[in-house]
């Protein structure tokens, strides 16, 4: 079934009845996007939540100087959306782009909200998922303050080995708050120390 992966993801946190799973799947659609294709463009309102069945995406914003700053990556079994834009129904400050050809499961935010009022277990699932996401973001913010650049990179490689091998180094550098040149120095040093 085309929704097996998303249902497995949900079952890690909550159990739905077969009828609830079927009703949830009725709200889903499959969306495929090609490498370098935008899923969300800055200024557009994000109306959907996406689960990555296959592929890799990145969320980033462009500052006033035209520099890209990576905020988030998503690979198989991860979710991606613009939480601010989606919940506030406001124009997004971010872009979401495919780094690889990707297959996504899409659910409309309004449909999801309605479903969560009918099935409280789904509200619990998303609360737990958002908590995990907030913890990760909080930890990243703390690391930017107390870890050296090298420590942040080593932690990233250890915590997310699948990302470290799939994402271009310039995007990892941006995610870690480093210039590409400084990142190259750190990357070479870390590889030499292994």
Automatic annotation (TrEMBL):
Residues 32-117 form the Cyclic nucleotide-binding domain. SUPFAM superfamilies: cAMP-binding domain-like. CDD domains: CAP_ED (cd00038). Pfam families: cNMP_binding. Signal peptide: none annotated. This is Transcriptional regulator, Crp/Fnr family. It comes from Chitinophaga pinensis (strain ATCC 43595 / DSM 2588 / LMG 13176 / NBRC 15968 / NCIMB 11800 / UQM 2034).
């Amino acid at each position: 079934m085309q929704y097996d992966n998303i249902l497995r993801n949900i079952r890690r946190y909550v159990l739905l009845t077969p009828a609830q799973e079927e009703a949830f799947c009725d709200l889903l659609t499959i969306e495929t996007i090609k490498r370098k294709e935008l899923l969300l463009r800055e200024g557009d309102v994000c109306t959907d939540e996406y689960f990555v069945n296959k592929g890799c995406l990145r969320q980033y914003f462009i500052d006033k100087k035209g520099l890209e700053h990576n905020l988030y990556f998503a690979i198989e079994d991860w979710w991606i959306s613009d939480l601010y834009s989606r919940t506030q129904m406001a124009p997004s400050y971010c872009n979401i782009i495919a780094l690889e050809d990707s297959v996504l499961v899409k659910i409309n935010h309004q449909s999801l909200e309605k479903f969560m009022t009918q099935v409280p277990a789904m509200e619990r699932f998303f609360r737990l998922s958002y908590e995990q996401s907030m913890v990760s973001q909080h930890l990243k913010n703390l690391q930017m303050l107390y870890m050296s650049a090298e420590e942040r990179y080593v932690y990233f490689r250890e915590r997310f080995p699948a990302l470290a091998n799939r994402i271009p180094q310039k995007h990892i550098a941006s995610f870690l708050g480093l210039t590409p040149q400084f990142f190259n120095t750190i990357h070479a040093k870390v590889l030499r120390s292994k």
